[in-house]
Design brief:
heterodimer, A: 296 residues, alpha/beta, Rossmann fold, eight-stranded mixed sheet, 11 helices, B: 98 residues, alpha+beta, Alpha-Beta Plaits, two-stranded antiparallel sheet, elongated, binds thiamine diphosphate, binds iron/sulfur cluster, binds magnesium ion
Chain lengths: 296, 98
């Protein structure tokens, strides 16, 4: 070890999430929160509906976050954030960032009406969906974010999910909000950079964050960051941003895409898939990537 | 590191409870190190000081003390991400000594 060498820190050193929280070993959603707060700082209010994060934080009156949290009903993350923002503005506070922080179930399914309403009004909030691709907090039920081929308790092996994942980013882009970004816990520098950029923009900002869940994906806890990285590198979950619903920028250009099989094979939820199924997933990923390249 | 750990405040009745959540580390009374089956051990001799283990710890249970990474075993849950991601492969996951 070089004695006098300094540690390289590629993220802000400030830590607004403390240990002692209740997430499973290797939880991607927890990393996502840690990175977001590093970008936004303490002057942030979080509105969290029912989801794993409503539990991870700790039981009342304890908390692992150094920012206030408003626990709201499952379908109301966006409307709660809108209300909190309006309330703050009435007190003359225009500085505080208001964040709606919800899971994929709370975003793609049950919260989509409130989210669409807030986006259509262009309410001044940041909406973050951490996507673990199922309803994890209640024991791994399928959501419309669950990908094709995945096992969940409501899509058992014999009847695994045979529909593709809903394209939430396209839905949000159709609202023509000022800023949309995808992010992955494997690329925290990119996430922090885009979150800082979003903080300075007024209006509805939407983040779709890829957050591996070893418990629900039946993957090894030490593979969480690796899985997120593979998903970015094989274009299963590409990193890009969309400004004003139109201007698409790919943040990580891929010269060579890795095969999706490497990613699929590390997860127990895909164990039953045959080579033909995986080839079908590869075709779908290739087509999506080609569409994305064409759109910029 | 010790001073940041909160003691658990015990409320005997609902009336004693505060109206608001106490943030600023109040959940640190929960020593999640007890969940661990395997423990990360860092060989500082081989460490590159790249900060990657610190960056990817989901707790976070790796702190930078005197410009080196130090695992806080009171909280480390033993997920193994730090060992998996370390580019110098200088973190090994060893059997937990109970
Ligand atoms: C109206 C309503 N329906 C159902 C529930 C039960 N419930 C709580 S959390 C949850 C799953 C949330 O899934 P997701 O939003 O994907 O977050 P995750 O748990 O995966 O982090 C469900 C179904 C509820 N709290 N409220
Ligand atoms: S179930 Fe998944 S998302 Fe929820 S705390 Fe555990 S690892 Fe995290
Ligand atoms: S094993 Fe997991 S919890 Fe423990 S220090 Fe490493 S990354 Fe953090
Ligand atoms: S990841 Fe490995 S090399 Fe880098 S700081 Fe941590 S222990 Fe040292
Ligand atoms: Mg979910």
């Amino acid at each position: 070890m070089k004695k006098d060498k300094k540690m390289t820190l590629t993220l802000p050193a400030e830590e607004l999430m403390s240990p002692g929280h209740l997430a499973c070993q290797g939880c991607g959603a927890t990393l996502a929160m840690r990175y977001m707060l590093k970008a936004l700082g303490q002057r942030t209010v979080l509105c969290i509906p029912a989801c794993c994060w409503a539990v991870i934080d700790g039981p009342y009156p304890y908390s692992c976050l150094d920012a206030p949290i408003y626990h709201c009903a499952f379908e109301t993350a966006a409307s709660t954030a809108t209300g909190v923002k309006a309330g703050l503005e009435m007190t003359g506070d225009t500085e505080t960032t208001v964040v709606a922080w919800a899971g994929d179930g709370g975003t793609f399914d049950i919260g989509i009406q409130a989210l669409s309403g807030a986006a259509e009004r262009n309410d001044d909030i940041i909406y973050v969906c951490y996507d673990n691709e199922a309803y994890m907090n209640t024991g791994i039920q399928r959501s419309s974010a669950t990908p094709y081929g995945a096992w969940t308790t409501t899509t058992p092996v014999k009847h695994f999910k045979d529909r593709p994942k809903k394209d939430i980013v396209a839905i949000m882009a159709a609202h023509r909000i000022p800023y949309i970004a995808t992010a992955s816990v494997s690329h925290p520098e990119d996430f922090v950079k885009k979150m800082k950029k979003a903080k300075a923009i007024k209006g509805t900002r939407f983040f779709h964050v890829f957050a591996p869940c070893p418990t629900g994906w039946k993957s090894r806890p030490d593979d969480s960051v690796k899985l997120a990285r593979l998903a970015v590198q094989n274009a299963y979950f590409p990193l890009f941003e969309i400004e004003d619903g139109e201007k698409v920028t790919i943040n990580l250009k891929l010269k060579e895409k890795k095969p999706v099989a490497d990613y699929i094979r590390l997860q127990g939820r895909f164990r039953h898939l045959s080579e033909a199924h995986i080839a079908a997933i590869q075709d779908e990923v290739d087509a999506r990537w080609a569409r994305l390249l064409k759109s910029c | 590191m010790k001073e940041k750990k909160a003691k658990r405040i015990v409320y005997r009745s609902e009336r004693e409870m505060p109206l608001m959540v106490i943030s600023v580390g109040s959940q640190t009374h929960n020593l999640t190190g007890a969940w661990r089956n395997i423990r990360p051990e860092i060989d500082l001799e081989k460490c590159l000081k790249c900060g990657i283990c610190w960056k990817f710890c989901p707790e976070p249970a790796i702190e930078i003390v005197d410009e080196r990474p130090v695992v806080d075993y009171d909280y480390c849950k033993g997920c193994g991400i730090c060992a998996e991601e370390c580019p110098a492969k200088c973190i090994v996951m060893a059997e937990e000594r109970k």
